Amino acid sequence: MKQKSRLLYLKQYLEENSDEQHPLTLAEIVEHIEAVGFVCGRKSIKADLDQLTDSGVDIVCNKSRELHYFVGDRHFELPELKMLTDAVQASKFIPARKSKQLISKLAAFASKHQAIELKRTLYTDKPVKSSNENIFYTVDLLHAAINTKTKITFKYYEYTSLKKKIYKHNKQNYIFSPYGLIWNSDNYYVVGYSDSHGKVSTFRVDRIASPKATEKPAVPKPNTLDMSVYARSVFQMFDGAERDVIIKCTNTHMKSVIDRFGEGVKTEVLDAEHFCIYVRVSASPTFYGWIFGFAGQMEIVAPKEVKNEYVSLARLVAEKAD
Length: 322
Fold this sequence. Notes:
By secondary structure, the protein is an alpha+beta fold. The chain is built from 11 helices and 13 strands. It folds into 4 domains: 2-71, Winged helix-like DNA-binding domain superfamily/Winged helix DNA-binding domain (Arc Repressor Mutant, subunit A); 78-104 and 112-118, no CATH class; 135-217, SH3 type barrels; 227-321, Alpha-Beta Plaits, CATH 3.30.70. Helices cover 39% and strands 27% of the residues. A hairpin with a 5-residue loop joins strand 2 (59-62) and strand 3. The model has no long low-confidence stretch (mean pLDDT 83).
């Protein structure tokens, strides 16, 4: 039993203290293992290292001069850990305290020397973090309900002009059949059938309060509901009638079109300076605002009623600005 404990401790010690830039000599390893109370020598530690290697641990031996050992292949490479750390730090969906906890857990996959490199400052244009500490548990509950095809209940809140949280509809308990989760504009949304609305609806996960699982079977997902299409068509999850539209664009904005609709978007060349796209969108103020942001270099061509609605909305905004 003592030998097994030494073997596990040796594995942990190497994972925490060695990497390619910080290898350990056999003498250093023996000295440390003996210092914590294990009886060993160079020969026994060498045998332990061979046993760990045989069991699948990637222990690299550098024989250039004195024998040096370090853990090579890990669950994550250092560049991967840096990328994941940046993603956690940048995400406003993850509360600040939880971000620190997750980054600390990610650092456990690296040596102590590499972990120092993960403690860096990432500057983003979205410094705002969610204040909902229970969001991870809400996401877990939603996934469980999706997998078991059962309903959940929850309350939903919004903000007053004084930044005070208030529950919608007098703390109404929403009865909801979740179908899937969508990540959009650095926010988590859940899509499903809302009994209260009598249709497929979308809710921001971080504004869900008091979620509870039920054993009631969920309303079956409509065969016509394609989650990927739904995600693309509903701009930032604002409700609006879905419409097939044709948009005329200048060539310089192809990258913006691909960023919004993906490389599979249907396009057609109009002339040397313009192309048009054929997309299905949620005809909402959010969509019109996106078009307006291109300052006339994107134009709704059809259908006529969508074009007219956009023009009317633009005029209304201009009148209020005056």
